[in-house]
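hey
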């Protein structure tokens, strides 16, 4: 059952994690390392309803069947820049094709722009890779989380200059890689 496999992915993600990331800023040939500590909690039904409402998203499925989580994180870069954020995230499956689930990825607050946002996701049931694509005003962010086992995830982030309509993503601003380990 595919919805159960998707739910298992989210169950494995719940907990406290630590990641060491490397960011490659291609526009100025800079490489930066950072450390992030984050906590992932299941998203309550009232929080799910709030995320749906914030994004003006009408959906009739029972909220308990929707996958989502609360993400709270603290990041410090090697240059001393600190970022803290807390957001609610909800995933709504719209279709399935060849063991790949696809749908909408809703947040009550976007990373790049502090407002609710609806993005797209796909989840490969074979590789356990969650791929999220967000169109911001200036960039398009493609974020990948691959669950290796319940205590280890690989992360990849690619930010592109947002192209004109119907043009391909080809100008890369940032590439980030990380290894995420569960600490409890």
């Amino acid at each position: 059952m595919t919805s159960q496999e998707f739910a298992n992915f989210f169950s494995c993600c719940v907990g406290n994690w630590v990641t060491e990331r490397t960011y490659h800023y291609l526009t100025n040939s800079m490489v930066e390392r950072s450390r992030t500590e984050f906590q992932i909690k299941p998203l309550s039904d009232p929080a799910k309803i709030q995320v749906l409402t914030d994004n003006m998203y009408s959906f009739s499925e029972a909220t308990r069947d929707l996958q989502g989580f609360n993400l709270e994180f603290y990041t410090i870069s090697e240059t001393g820049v600190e970022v803290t954020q807390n957001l609610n995230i909800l995933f709504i499956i719209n279709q399935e094709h060849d063991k790949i689930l696809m749908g909408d990825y809703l947040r009550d607050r976007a990373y790049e722009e502090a407002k609710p946002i609806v993005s797209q996701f796909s989840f490969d049931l074979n590789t356990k890779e969650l791929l999220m694509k967000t169109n911001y005003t200036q960039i398009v962010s493609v974020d990948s989380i691959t669950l290796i086992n319940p205590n280890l995830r690989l992360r990849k982030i690619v930010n592109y200059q947002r192209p004109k309509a119907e043009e391909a993503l080809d100008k890369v601003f940032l590439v980030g890689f990380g290894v995420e380990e569960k600490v409890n």
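The first strand starts at residue 15 and ends at 25. The CA atoms of residues 102 and 122 lie 4 Å apart.
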